[in-house]
Structure formats: C-alpha cells, structure tokens
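Worked example 3. Consider a protein that binds heme C.
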Amino acid sequence: MKHFTFVRLSFALPILFLVGCAANSNNPVADELPQARDPLSTSFKALGQAGLERLQQDDTQRICSEYEGRELPTDLMMAIIKSSTDSVVFPADGNFMGDWETGKKIAETGTGLQSNDDPSIPNGGNCYACHQMAPDEFAYGTLGLPLVNYGKLRGTSEAILKYTWTRLWNSHAYNACSHMPRFGANGVLSEQQLKDVMAFLFDPKSPVNKEVAVQ
Ligand code: HEC
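Given these inputs, the predicted complex is written out as structure tokens:
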C-alpha cells in the first residue's frame, strides 16, 4: 500500500508543480533570477519517451496558465469548451461499458508515460491520485471530488454515460481550466481502457458502488 501511495504522489506532483509555476509571474525571486524564471526548460532533460516537446504548452494550457488565479474571459472560456467538446470521440460500437475488474486495475495504476516506463505496457489512469473511489481503498488524493457510489447515485441514462465519457476524454469540455488529465484526447488511455474505467464507475458489482451510506 505504501508503495502505491508513493507512485500516486510521484504522478500528481509534476502536475501540481506545473500549476504552481503558472503563478510565478508575481514571484519576485523568479523576476530576479533567470534560472528561476524558467526552471523547467533549464532542468528538464529528454529521457526515454519523455521528450522536450512536453515543455510546449498547447493553447488550452497556455491560456489556463496565463489566467491561473484570475477570472478567465468568457470568449476564451467558450472557445476552450467548444474545442474540447469537439475533440470527444464516443465509442465506435455505441457501448460505453467494459470490464470493471480491469477498470479497477487501471484506476489503481500510477505508471505510464514517465521516462522510466516501458511504452509497450499500457498506461494507468492513476485516478486515486485525485479521487476517492472504492471505499476500501484508503490511499487517495482529494484534488478531485469523491467518486464513491458514482453509478449508484447517478444511474446509467444515456446523458450520464455521455457526460462521464466526455469527462474522461477531455474534462475541459465542462470546466475550461480543469485540472483533470485528458485521458482520451491525449491518448493516455485507449477506448477499451476508458470503457473498463466506465464499468468500474457504473457497474453495480464494482466496489465503487458498494459503499453503505452512513446514517
Ligand atoms: C490530477 C487529478 C485528477 C486525476 C488523476 C483524475 N481526475 Fe477526475 N477530476 C479531477 C478534478 C479536479 C475534477 C473536478 C472537476 C474539474 O476540474 O473539472 C474531476 C472530475 C471527475 C469526474 C466528474 C465528477 C462529477 O461529479 O461530475 C469524474 C467522473 C472523474 N473525474 C473521473 C476520473 C477517473 C475515472 C480518473 C482516472 C481515469 C480521474 N478522474 C483522474 C481531477 C483528477
């Protein structure tokens, strides 16, 4: 369990670091020292699958970094939401549900895309870095809201399935500057892996939906 906690943190920390960097323009130390102004480009070395292109922000990241801590203008917000919504690809066969047991493993796995990961091994979703999911798992982050009883509380209407798939594919479709990784849009998880994670969230047999409400 301790090992998993470390892996999860190791995935979450670079994200928090990047978020933190966005606020640096008001930092007097960063303005004084050139090496503190751009610590990523001076310290990051390409290694394995982690190439230098990762330092290039896409438009969404650039805009969200620029407005971190400030209100995003409505036109930019709507443009991000539109392009993110347009990016979503729904399952070709119209079936949103895979295997919850495989989805459980994907949610628990914090490896993938790092320089020392084998690119031939499928990536994990590392959902527990940010969300509480199955109630019997005690190591979880709280950047995202708890997903305990997700399917039990929301049901499986077409609208809920599409909403959740869109969240997983590209969370910026609902929150322009979401801090949730774009699992589908960025190719972190495959269509089948996303279906398995959906089953973990919705299947009545999944431990996610086994929490007994505390009275
Ligand atoms: C780096 C943190 C992070 C990771 C990793 C992450 N999420 Fe999220 N997630 C969030 C945040 C933050 C939100 C809240 C809304 C937002 O930012 O848009 C969210 C929202 C959601 C929602 C919408 C919940 C609701 O009540 O409508 C779902 C579903 C979800 N996440 C599922 C997942 C799954 C499944 C995984 C793993 C494949 C995952 N998340 C990985 C941060 C994360």
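Take a moment to read the result before moving on. The two ends are 29 Å apart (CA to CA). Residues 1-25 have pLDDT under 50 and may be disordered.
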